[in-house]
């Protein structure tokens, strides 16, 4: 069992103003460790590509994608996958990796998108997956513009399909979350968890493959440590990957 995990990394540049003088500092962070560790602990091999390398290193052919049982996208905007540096800098034609992912799932692959500030539509709509082949293959419709729903007081999603293989054996009372992306389930999709009229965890069959949309993050801040360190965190996502791969 092998998955490709892209996204969940960022650079931070800070300006320190001290009276007349100022200086800058920079740091690099990743939010992959919780999900990656959970999958590896269940024997699932993970190839990870951070955001700053994905524009070059993300597969550019269906053959490369077919090496994986599933693909995970989390906090990686559509432009990173769509615009290869050879196209942006050299005006060369390059494969459309959003279309490749659609073909990969249609041919039997699996894909899950986690929520975040650069997932689905994201902050100020900058993730910009609406109207793309990714929206077509996912079990949800996205909203126009900024789709974030900030819930600083916390909310607990409602598990409406506790017998689905993804959440089988997991309690229906989950830890609280702090934000999510506003999504609407497509008519033939299976809603596993919701919050009011919004789809939180949704799955469906697409062509010969499967896809999952999880409106919340797999890392802080949307997913607080109570969820990340919950004893069932790993079980949910290993079962999700095995469901995508049609093992369960």
Summed up, what is this model?
This protein has 248 residues and is an alpha/beta fold. The protein has one domain (2-244): Class I glutamine amidotransferase (GATase) domain (Rossmann fold). 25% of the residues lie in helices and 33% in strands.
Widest β-sheet, arrangement of strands = 4-1-5-6-14-13-12-9
Count up the helices.
9
Question: What structural class do you assign from the helix and strand content?
Answer: alpha/beta
**How much helicity do the residues have?**
25-40%
Low-confidence stretches: none
Task: Report the radius of gyration as a whole number of Å.
Answer: 18 Å
Sum up the structure in keywords.
about 250 residues, alpha/beta, Rossmann fold, 9 helices, about 25% helix, globular
Structural features, described:
The protein is an alpha/beta fold and 248 residues long. The protein contains nine helices and 14 strands. It has helices at residues 33-41, 51-57, 62-65, 78-82, 85-90, 97-106, 133-137, 225-228, 233-244; strands at 2-7, 9-18, 21-30, 45-49, 70-74, 110-114, 140-142, 148-155, 158-159, 177-181, 183-185, 190-195, 198-206, 209-214. Helix 1 crosses helix 9. The radius of gyration is 18 Å and the shape is globular. The two termini are 13 Å apart.
């Amino acid at each position: 069992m092998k998955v490709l995990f892209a996204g969940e990394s960022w650079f931070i540049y800070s300006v320190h103003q001290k009276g007349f003088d100022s200086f800058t500092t920079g740091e690099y962070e990743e939010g992959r460790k919780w999900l990656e560790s959970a999958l590896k602990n269940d024997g699932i091999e993970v190839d990870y590509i951070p955001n700053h390398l994905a524009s070059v290193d993300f597969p550019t052919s269906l053959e490369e994608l077919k090496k994986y049982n599933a693909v995970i996208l989390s906090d990686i905007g559509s432009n990173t996958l769509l615009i290869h540096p050879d196209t942006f800098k050299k005006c060369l034609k390059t494969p459309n990796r959003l279309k490749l992912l659609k073909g990969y799932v249609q041919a039997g692959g699996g894909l899950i998108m986690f929520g975040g500030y650069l997932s689905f539509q994201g902050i100020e709509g900058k993730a910009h997956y609406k109207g793309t082949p990714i929206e077509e293959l996912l079990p949800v419709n996205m909203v126009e513009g900024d789709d974030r729903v900030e819930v600083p007081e916390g909310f607990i999603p409602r598990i409406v399909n506790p017998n689905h293989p993804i959440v089988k054996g997991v309690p229906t009372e989950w830890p609280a979350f702090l934000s999510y992306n506003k999504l609407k389930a497509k008519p033939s999709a299976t809603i596993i968890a919701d919050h009011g009229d919004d789809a939180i965890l949704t799955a469906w069959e697409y062509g010969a493959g499967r896809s999952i949309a999880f409106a919340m993050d797999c890392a802080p801040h949307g997913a607080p440590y109570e969820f990340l360190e919950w004893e069932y965190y790993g079980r949910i996502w290993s079962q999700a990957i095995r469901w995508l791969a049609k093992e369960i």
